[in-house]
Amino acid sequence: MSDTTAAPEVRAADPPPVPRAGRNEWLLLTFTGSTNIGDAITRVALPLLAVRLTSSPALIALVAVLLTLPWLMTALHVGVFVDRKNRRSLMVGAEAARMVAIGALLLAYLAGQLSLPVIYVVAVVLGVAEVVAVTAGASIIPAAIPKSRWQTAVARITAVEYLSNGFVGAPIGGFLVAAGVGLALLSTTGIYVLGAVLLALLVGNFTVTPTKERRPMHEEIREGIGFLWRHTLLRTMALLIAAMAGCWAAWIAILPGYAVSGPLHLSEREYGFVLTALGAGGITGTLIVGPINRFLGRRWSMFADIIGTMALVAVPTLAPARPSSAVAVGIAAFAAGLGGTMWTVNSRVIYQTLVPSELLGRFSAASRLVGWGTAPIAAALAGVLATTLGYRAAFGVFALICVGLAVPFLRVVTPAALAEVDRLSATPDGEK
């Protein structure tokens, strides 16, 4: 495609040099590890609590729908706030909101008032907090870490995300819920308190100085969407993520019912360990993404995500409905985690290279609205399909979606487009 890199030279507002960048990098790594363990525990705990209250796949899947719905409803406005306000303060606020939500869930449990509506409300609060934290977190890196360290830092942060969220957090979540809901929720509350403290220790200026006068919110939102839509490479990446994120959301939404109360008949602890395969694949991906990029190029490194996502939803479609199929499901999750990490590392470097710092919040929000906005829709659809047609049909629909992703990827994510990204990322800090 001739306009793959048709956007103008976009590094117009690189951030100033970062003070004590090594300290910031380690603080962000530690924060990422702790808060993702908390997120993993809640993502395991909430659906498993719902499983205790209902056997309906649709009602269980609604937890995943509400956790992701805020991306569709609030992402664009959050993006504007991220570009206007102190990004660290927004992340601290998100940690506080998570702490309050989980604390309220703990009180409801201890008082014997736990119900599906309570779980759903907590899921919504956690979802909004995630939109704020992820959008601000993706935008804070240029102000916290020097440009020469971006790829290394992003690879490390991504590795910690998968290590904490999947490999460590998922089995811990399953174990804690099995050991006691109160213990799981109390532990998670403490983790979010620690996250807020770590963020407070970051050094630097995390409020972007605008290069032009602030305008009405709707105009700034339009600017972020316009930047994404005019750039063919970035737009296509967002649309591909929309399809893959939908498949992941569907898998996550109906897997608890499929694995625990459905055909696999796993215990809560065993379900948590199946999820570790996703994290193990993610960790492996961060270890090999550098060599794969060097020997095969970013293009094939990113293409692995399409293959892994296809395996994620195809294996439950094809595997026999018996407990032994958990091994195959775990292997597919490993492949998905592997590909997902390599896409994440490369896409973050691409975004941070091509998008001006003052636009990162709005761009991140717009791209995630397109990319992740399908998640609640896909999760709801998967729940309905699993209820009416069965788990195999539900997974199969999303497997078919994956089949068509290779063609647009290969047509747009070309070697020439990615070579231009590498050229821009190789320039020193502050150079256009």
UniProtKB/TrEMBL annotation:
Looking at the UniProt entry, the stretches that span the membrane are 58-82, 89-112, 118-141, 162-185, 191-208, 237-259, 271-290, 302-319, 325-345, 366-387, 393-413
**Where found?**
Cell membrane
This protein's membrane topology, according to the annotation, is:
Multi-pass membrane protein
Segments forming a coiled coil:
none
Where this protein primarily resides, as one coarse class?
membrane
Q: For the Major facilitator superfamily (MFS) profile domain, which residue ranges apply? A: 1-417
Family matches, as Pfam families: MFS_1
Gene3D superfamilies tied to this protein: MFS general substrate transporter like domains
Q: What name appears for this protein in its UniProt entry?
A: MFS transporter
Q: Which organism is it from?
A: Dactylosporangium roseum
